[in-house]
Amino acid sequence: MATIEIDKVSKVYHGNVPAVSEVDIKITDGEFIVLVGPSGCGKSTLLRMVAGLENISSGTVRIGGRIVNDVEPADRDIAMVFQNYALYPHMTVRENLAYGLKNRRTPKPEIEARVAEAARMLELGPYLDRKPRALSGGQRQRVAMGRAIVRHPSAFLFDEPLSNLDAKLRVSMRGEIKRLQRRVGTTSLYVTHDQLEAMTLADRLVVLNGGRIEQIGRPLDVYHAPASTFVASFIGSPAMNLVQGELHGSKLAIGPALIDLGDTLPTQGAVTVGFRAEDLQAVGAPVDASAQIGSATMPLRVDYVEELGSQRLVHGTLGDQTITVAMSSDAPLTSEMQVAVPLGRLHFFDAESGRRLVWSSVEPNRSTTAADLLETAR
Amino acid sequence: MHRTRILDHAVLILGALFLTLPVVVAFMTSTHEAAAIHSTGLMLSPGGHLVETYETVLTRKGGFTGQVTGARMMMNSFILGIGFAVGKIALSMLAAYAIVYFRFRFATLAFWVIFTTLLLPLEVRIMPSYEVMSSLGLINSYTGLIVPLLASATGTFYFRQFFKSVPEELLEAARIDGAGPFKFFIDVLVPLSKTMIAAIFIIMFVYGWNQYLWPMLMTTDERFFTLMRGIKQILQVWIGSQIPDYNEAFALAVLAMLPPVLMVVLFQSWFIKGLTESDK
C-alpha cells in the first residue's frame, strides 16, 4: 500500500518532442486512478515512467514517499499488467505466477501459498499447470493480473489491459478488475483510451491531451463539469454537442435559436456552448420560447437516425452546426423538430482556448452521486 | 486424371531413386571383398562381408603410426561436429543478445560488420587463421580444430532476427519481475529459442562434421584425424601390387554419412519448427 506522487514530471524524446509535460498527480493510498486520453496523449509514457521502464526527463516520482527516479523497476515495489499480457510462453501458469517471487528469493512455501491465494481469487486453479498458449484471452488476462497480485506490491500499474479482449469479455473483466482492486485495496494506476472503461473503473480520472493534464476529477464530476471542450467531447458517449454561440447580455444566440438565460454571463460575444445528447429532449409543437422557462429550445433538422435499441440517436443540424440528440426509442420522429435542454445543463467554454467558463448559476446542481454513495459505503 | 497420377508417381519414384541410388550402391559395394570390387566394379547386390568389413573399419589400427582406428576418427568427428555446433550457438546467441538488447555505440555497425563476414568463406582467411593457430601452438589440438571456426555470422543473424521478434513486453515484464540481464537470457530467451537452437544445431553439426580442409591443415597427428580425412587415407594406400581397400573406403563413407542423416531424421520436426515458427 502506498501513495504515488507525480511531481512536475516531463518526458522529452530526442528531437525535443515533449511526450509528457509537467504532469502533477497525487494518488492517495488505495485509490484507483485512470489515465485516459486519445492515442499519443502521453498516458502510456507517464505510466511507464512510474514503472521505471522509461527514463524521467524532469520532475520526480515518489512511491510511498520514496523518490524512485533512479530506482530499477524491480525495486519500485510495483506490478504491471500489460496490454498483450506478456506472459512467459514457455512457463506454466504456476511458473508465470511464481517467477517474480522466485527472483526475490521468497521462501518456497510462501510462494506456494501466494500462488494458491491468487489462483483462488482469480479462479485459475484448474489452469495452473497449463501453458499460456492453451488459455483463452480472458484467462491469460487473469494470469497477468495474478502475476501482479502474488507480489503484494504497493501499486498496480495497468497498461490498457483490456484492449485485446472482445467487447463482451472486456465488460466482465472490467468488473473483475474493479472488484479485485476493492478487495485487495492496492493503489492502482490504469491507462486506457476507452472513456467508458475510465468512467466505470476510476475513483478519479485524469484526462490527458497532448502530454498535458486537461482535468483531474471523479468520473461524474468530469462528466458533469468538463474543464475544457476536449474533455467535454472525450468523456461521455455520444460526445457532447459543442456549438458556436453568441452572447449578448442575457441572450444567447445559437444559429437560428435565441435563448434567454435569465442572467448575464461575465463574458460576452463568441462562446462555445456544450450540451449532452442525453440532456436534450424533444418538445412537441414549436412553442413560444418564453413559455419554456428554465430551458433552451432549439429547432432541429433531422439528418439521420441511429437505433440503439434502448434509445435512438438523432443526428441533425441546428442552423449550420451538427448536433446529436438521444431520445427514447418510442419518441415520435419528424424531419423538423424542437429540442430543449435545461439551462442548468448548458456548458460554456471560451471560444478561443476551449477552457470552461464558470458561471455559478448554470453550474449543474447535482444531488448525491453514485461515487459519493460508494465513498460513504467504504 | 488417372494417367497424370501415374506420371506423377513415376517422376517422384525416379527422383527418389536418383537421390538414393548412390547411397545404396555405396552400401552394397561396401559389403563385398576388395578384390571382387576391383574386378567387377560397383555392386547393387548385397555381399557376404557386411559385419567383418565394418568391424575392421571401426577397430583396425591403421595409418602410419598404426594407432588410429575408425572409431577413434568417428569420435574426433563427433567432437568437432558437436563442439563446433555448440560453440557456434553459444557465441552467436550471446552476440545477438548484445546487439538486440543492449544499447551501445555502433551496435548496428557491429552487426553489419559481422553480417558482411558472411560473404567471406573460410578459405579466404585460412592462411591467417592457420598462422595464428600455429603461433599459439594449437596445431594438433581440439581447441585449434574448433575455436577458429566458431564465429558465425549466419547464427548471429538468425538469432538476431529471432530476438527481434520476441515482444518487448516480455523483457519489461521480466524487469519488473526482478530478472537481471543474465536471468532474462537464461530464464526467458534461451527456453524461447529452443526450436531455433535445434535448427541451428543441426545445420552447424552437419557443417562441422563435413569439414575437410581445416582439419587437414590443423592436424598432422593421426590421433586427431576426422572421418573425412580417414576415407582419403584408406584410398591412398597403394603399396606395391596391393589392391586399395575399396570396401573399407565405402564402409567408412557410409559411416560418415550416418550421423548427419540421423540428426536430421530425428530432429526434423524441431528443425522445421525452428525455421518456420514465427508466433511467440
From TrEMBL, chain A:
<dbReference type="InterPro" id="IPR003593">
    <property type="entry name" value="AAA+_ATPase"/>
</dbReference>
<keyword id="KW-1003">Cell membrane</keyword>
<dbReference type="InterPro" id="IPR015855">
    <property type="entry name" value="ABC_transpr_MalK-like"/>
</dbReference>
<keyword id="KW-0813">Transport</keyword>
<dbReference type="InterPro" id="IPR027417">
    <property type="entry name" value="P-loop_NTPase"/>
</dbReference>
<keyword id="KW-0067">ATP-binding</keyword>
<keyword id="KW-1278">Translocase</keyword>
<dbReference type="GO" id="GO:0055052">
    <property type="term" value="C:ATP-binding cassette (ABC) transporter complex, substrate-binding subunit-containing"/>
</dbReference>
<dbReference type="Pfam" id="PF00005">
    <property type="entry name" value="ABC_tran"/>
</dbReference>
<dbReference type="GO" id="GO:0005524">
    <property type="term" value="F:ATP binding"/>
</dbReference>
<dbReference type="GO" id="GO:0008643">
    <property type="term" value="P:carbohydrate transport"/>
</dbReference>
<keyword id="KW-0547">Nucleotide-binding</keyword>
<keyword id="KW-0762">Sugar transport</keyword>
<dbReference type="GO" id="GO:0140359">
    <property type="term" value="F:ABC-type transporter activity"/>
</dbReference>
<dbReference type="InterPro" id="IPR008995">
    <property type="entry name" value="Mo/tungstate-bd_C_term_dom"/>
</dbReference>
<dbReference type="InterPro" id="IPR003439">
    <property type="entry name" value="ABC_transporter-like_ATP-bd"/>
</dbReference>
<dbReference type="InterPro" id="IPR012340">
    <property type="entry name" value="NA-bd_OB-fold"/>
</dbReference>
<comment type="similarity">
    <text>Belongs to the ABC transporter superfamily.</text>
</comment>
<dbReference type="GO" id="GO:0016887">
    <property type="term" value="F:ATP hydrolysis activity"/>
</dbReference>
<keyword id="KW-0997">Cell inner membrane</keyword>
<protein>
    <submittedName>
        <fullName>Carbohydrate ABC transporter ATP-binding protein (CUT1 family)</fullName>
    </submittedName>
</protein>
<dbReference type="GO" id="GO:0001407">
    <property type="term" value="P:glycerophosphodiester transmembrane transport"/>
</dbReference>
From TrEMBL, chain B:
<keyword id="KW-0472">Membrane</keyword>
<feature type="transmembrane region" description="Helical">
    <location>
        <begin position="78"/>
        <end position="99"/>
    </location>
</feature>
<dbReference type="InterPro" id="IPR035906">
    <property type="entry name" value="MetI-like_sf"/>
</dbReference>
<keyword id="KW-0813">Transport</keyword>
<keyword id="KW-1003">Cell membrane</keyword>
<feature type="transmembrane region" description="Helical">
    <location>
        <begin position="249"/>
        <end position="272"/>
    </location>
</feature>
<dbReference type="GO" id="GO:0005886">
    <property type="term" value="C:plasma membrane"/>
</dbReference>
<comment type="function">
    <text>Part of the ABC transporter complex UgpBAEC involved in sn-glycerol-3-phosphate (G3P) import. Probably responsible for the translocation of the substrate across the membrane.</text>
</comment>
<keyword id="KW-0997">Cell inner membrane</keyword>
<dbReference type="InterPro" id="IPR000515">
    <property type="entry name" value="MetI-like"/>
</dbReference>
<dbReference type="Pfam" id="PF00528">
    <property type="entry name" value="BPD_transp_1"/>
</dbReference>
<keyword id="KW-1133">Transmembrane helix</keyword>
<comment type="similarity">
    <text>Belongs to the binding-protein-dependent transport system permease family.</text>
</comment>
<feature type="transmembrane region" description="Helical">
    <location>
        <begin position="106"/>
        <end position="122"/>
    </location>
</feature>
<protein>
    <recommendedName>
        <fullName>sn-glycerol-3-phosphate transport system permease protein UgpE</fullName>
    </recommendedName>
</protein>
<feature type="transmembrane region" description="Helical">
    <location>
        <begin position="184"/>
        <end position="209"/>
    </location>
</feature>
<feature type="transmembrane region" description="Helical">
    <location>
        <begin position="142"/>
        <end position="163"/>
    </location>
</feature>
<keyword id="KW-0812">Transmembrane</keyword>
<comment type="subunit">
    <text>The complex is composed of two ATP-binding proteins (UgpC), two transmembrane proteins (UgpA and UgpE) and a solute-binding protein (UgpB).</text>
</comment>
<dbReference type="GO" id="GO:0055085">
    <property type="term" value="P:transmembrane transport"/>
</dbReference>
<feature type="domain" description="ABC transmembrane type-1">
    <location>
        <begin position="74"/>
        <end position="267"/>
    </location>
</feature>
